[in-house]
Structures are given as structure tokens and as C-alpha cells.
């Protein structure tokens, strides 16, 4: 009989769940999305969206997990054995595997760039040379497959060690390391010449720039950054003891996730303005622009490797949680042993990751797919990282608010706390506000 495991402490759960939420979405996606949407105004809308949309769904998912003590499929089966709700759980399990398959490719880039930074490949670099290095790097298909395999193996190793002995133990090491590197980089960045211009861009909102696009992008970023809609927080919630204070724990998870995203902006924008580069650099901001910055700023030879080490750690804490969802399913529903589940799911994910690894220049067919006119990795991100997550979170909010009933969920939420002050707001948000706004985000991705 396979053992599910539990968190040893509230701190362990918060760090593990924060690690799940903290990833490339915070340190890679958040800064470039902020940059292309005008800076401070985007940040303000993002912070409001975390509170109004993301936090209520996060609490709903964790309470669902703790009440059932199961993976996403088992949780919906437990509460509604009849009907099609279990398929929402299956969607979460499949989404976890599919996101991991391409996320591990980008995670592999962080390892490759850490090695480049350590070995001095970014010395005396200009933007044209940096773009050439990145193009050559991602089109080297043998290297891409190797980095993908390394990251999948690291993820499988941690998950195979169990909930407390693997995920919690490594999160207790990795998350403080991540915070430490973040603070060092932040201090270096804000003390650069002309850093004040970057801080003004990041902290002084221009309300004239408020558009529906900025609002939608900010809502989407808030929602995706917290690992919602794929069953991760249901699974992590299933390992939480009944005595824990769920509102407090989920509040800390949202805080740490948002804090790290905001801190990433404090690192990147002062550095960009210090060397006179464009903050709206798009997805290539981290891999094309930052190496140029590190080659120009004093101490860049030290802070370059530190930054890519930070990215690698953030990516690993997320890939661990992505793998845990399908692993928990096979432990609960199929009675597999954890080690067996971790290695088999890891191998299957590796196979699914091959097209994404080859899609950035390694193989022309995957680089520009017929009919959709995008790379395989971009297509997979659209399907699984955008549409599937939105669909999952929308139906989780509907399920908790209307099917399981928010009043029943509140009974579970308040088990570890005497007074949940925001109970009324949470009920309104999970029944009406969150699903309505998630639907708007979903429609904006389709239309």
C-alpha cells in the first residue's frame, strides 16, 4: 500500500506551496509583462487582482484538498461520485504533465545560462551578440534534450523522496536560498547609476495608460502565477493537517508569491534603465537583454551567475509541484508506490517534452507548425498554460461555490481558526467575482 504522506509543519507547507507558485512566471514572465504594459500601473492592477481573483480560488482549492485528503480526481469523486466532475480532476492531472513537459524545457535554459554566466560567456556582450548566443543555444537540439532530461531527473528525484522527506525538505532549503539571492541582486540593482529612472517607471503609475488590455494582462498574470486551475493546490492541500489555519497559510502563500514577483521587478527595471535599454523587451528580456546588462554593470561577473541560479531554483520548485499532481493521482487511485509513479510519469513527461525542446530551431517542423503559425512550445503554452488553467480554475470556483456549496467549504476552512474575518467576502468572491473575471480572461485568450 502506497503512503501518501503529510507536511511536517505549517512552515513546510507554506514554503512548498509558495515554491510551487514561485517560478519562471514570477521572475521571467512578470517583469517582461510589466515592461510591455507600462510599468507601475500594471503592477497596481496585478496586486488588486491577486486579492480579488486569485486568493479566493487558492483558498477554495486548498480547502477542497484538505477536506477530501485526495488528489484532484479523488477529491471530486469523494464529493460528487456521480456526474462528470471527476473529469475536471483528470483535466488537472493531464494539465500538470503537459505544462511540465514544456516548462522543463525553459527551466533547462536557466541551467544552460547559469553555466554560460559562470564560464564568462557574457563578458563584453552587445545586444546583437546576445541574440546570436541565444539563437544558437536553443537551436542546439542535443543540448536542449540533455538539459530537458537533467531538469526532469532532478524533479523526479525530489518527488520520489516523498512529501516531507522530498518536497518539504528541499523546499525548506531552496526557498531561503531563493530569498537570499533575490535580496543580494536587489541591493546591487537599486544602487546602480540611473537606477532611479527604473524605479520611477516601476513605482509611479500613469493612469492615462489604463486600457482593457492592461487590466486583462494583469488579471491573467495574477491568476497564473499562483499555480491555480491545475490541481496543484488541491493536491498540496490534501497533505495539510486539520489543525492548520488555512486562511493564514494561503494568505502567506499569496504574499510570498507576489513579493517575489514584485522583487524581480526591483532587480530588472533599475538594471535596464541603468544601461539605457528598452523595458518592453518581451519574452526575450531575461535571456537576451539581461546578459548584456550583466556584461556592463560593475560586479556583473558575480551577479549574472547568481541571477540564473535564482531562476533555476524558482523553476525547480515549480516543476516539483507539477509532477506531484499526477504522482498523487497514481498513488491514491491506482495504489502505485511513490517512487514507481514518479519515475514512470517523469519518463512519459520527458517524451512529451521532446517536441518543445526541438521547437526553438532544433527541428524546423516543430518551430513553425502548419495552420497555427507558431512553435510547438508556444502552442502547448497557449493550450495548457492559458486555456486549460482558466477552464480548470473557473470550474473549481463553480464547484466550491455552487455544487459543494461555499457554506460547506467554510466549515472546512474555519477548522483551524477561531475567526475568519473575510468569510463573507470570500463567499461572494468564489461564487460571483472570481468565476466572472476568470471567464473574461478565458474569453480574451480565445477571441
For the structure shown, list the relevant keywords.
447 residues, mainly alpha, Hydantoin permease, globular
CATH architecture: Orthogonal Bundle
Largest sheet: none
Tally the beta strands: 0
The structural class is mainly alpha
CATH level 1 class label: Mainly Alpha
Classify the fold: give the CATH topology: Hydantoin permease
- Kindly state the mean pLDDT as a whole number? 92
Head-to-tail CA distance between termini: 47 Å
Order of helices and strands: HHHHHHHHHHHHHHHHHHH
Number of domains: 1
Rough outline: globular
What value does the Rg take, in angstroms?
Answer: 21 Å
Q: Can you give the helix content as a percent range?
A: over 70%
Percentage of β-strand residues: under 5%
Give unreliable regions as ranges: none
DSSP helix count?
A: 19
Task: Give a verbal description of the structure.
This protein has one domain (10-446): Hydantoin permease, CATH 1.10.4160. It is built from 19 helices and no strands. The chain has helices at residues 10-21, 24-36, 40-68, 72-79, 86-118, 127-138, 141-160, 163-190, 195-203, 212-225, 232-237, 246-274, 285-296, 300-333, 338-357, 364-367, 376-403, 406-413, 423-446. Helix 17 packs antiparallel against helix 19. The N and C termini lie far apart (47 Å).
